[in-house]
Amino acid sequence: MPVIDPASAISAKIKSQYGKRLREKDYQAMVKCGSVGDVVQYLKTYTHYQGFLDKVSNDVHRGNLENIMQQKQFESFLSFCRYNNGNTPVTKYGLRLIETRELMKFITLLSIKRPEEYLFSMPLFFVRHTDIELQKLSLVNNHRELLDALERTGYHDVVKRFPPDERGDYDLAAIEDALENYSLGLLYADLAKIKKKKVRNQMLSLFDTLSDYHNYSRIIRLKKYYHMNSDAVRAHLLRYGNLTGRKLDRILSRDTYEEVREELQKTSVGKKAKTIDIDREMAVQGRYEMCRHQLYFSTNPEIVLLSFYILSQTELSNVIAIIEGVRYSMEPESIYETLVL
Which of 78, 91, 196, 269 is the most exposed, having the fewest neighbouring CB atoms within 10 Å of its CB? Predict the structure, then answer.
């Protein structure tokens, strides 16, 4: 009896699942829907969300619908994680992405003095998979209580560095940047422990490129729209990837947006990004295209799994964008232009 390669098996399972993704015809149909209920009905009738949404009413609240769909994506990711021997760098990183999203969601509500609303959007499906006590978090009313709720997690020391101002407002951008750097720091430490050099280098290259896309897009946006100086821009960048050191110094030393853009386009990720409209969310589009390529051609099951996770999250973001657009009666063409395809 031939021996089945576990790596090939999980890659095949993931590719089979990805084959059920939403297609261009689905997006074109949904943006033309007359109501959110019509969008839900389409998802229930014609897409892979059918079984998952079968018992969901068409007049479901948008927030509840988003939670239900996030649960589906998470359970799919988790099933592959278990098949892939569980506690791997990508598995842990994927869980931290969700933790960071939930923390930012709550801190945003706390900053606008509406923390009680978190209880209604808290992902109950995630409670068993995180060290953050989400139910305790939903009862928090101030910064001290927030730190108490995070006491047993590594997020405590990160959030502690960014107390609210005298009005109770948080620097949300700074907190999000710090959380992303914290999560990546743990990831790169895990990657350094991978014994097989080829596998380790493949993973490092992937995450370096993802970080580069993020920083490329962030530099463009901060220079073009906010005209920040180099020190201010640097404070909002990830500390990982290839856009660091002297290369970053040279880019940020340029005075105008046009000069900065010209320097960025000389970089490796800049050359890859030339076909992408930088006035859109270039990091999202670049990441999406790279992950599609990796899912089809990589032989590393960790890379295939991460690519699937990112592509699934992109699809979910597209659906949410459609629901929001239909809800506010946007023109179908305008909604379609916001999608990552």
Answer: 196
Residues in the chain, pLDDT under 70: 1-7, 84-86, 273-282
Q: Which residues contact 106 (CB under 8 A, 6 or more apart)?
A: 115, 118, 137, 138, 140, 146
Residue 179 CA to residue 101 CA, distance in Å, equals: 10
Q: Which two tokens stand for residue 135?
A: 């139910």
Q: What angle do CA 248, 96, 167 make, to 5 degrees?
A: 75
The CA distance from 84 to 91, in Å, is 9
d(CA 302, CA 206): 11
Tokens describing residue 295: 């899912």
Half-sphere CA count of 335, side-chain side, radius 13 A:
24
Choose among 4, 22, 13: nearest CA to 304: 13
Whole-number Cα distances in Å, 269 to 228, 241, 274, 289: 22, 10, 9, 13
Q: What pLDDT does residue 269 have? A: 85
Per-residue confidence (pLDDT) for residue 78, from 0 to 100: 86
**For residues 194, 303, 273 and 211, what is the CA-based torsion angle, rounded to 10 degrees?**
-40
CA distance 11 to 267: 31
pLDDT of residue 278: 59
Per-residue model confidence (pLDDT) at position 323: 94
pLDDT at 120 (0 to 100): 86
Q: Global pTM?
A: 0.89
First-last CA distance in the chain: 42
CB 6 within 8 A of CB 12: no
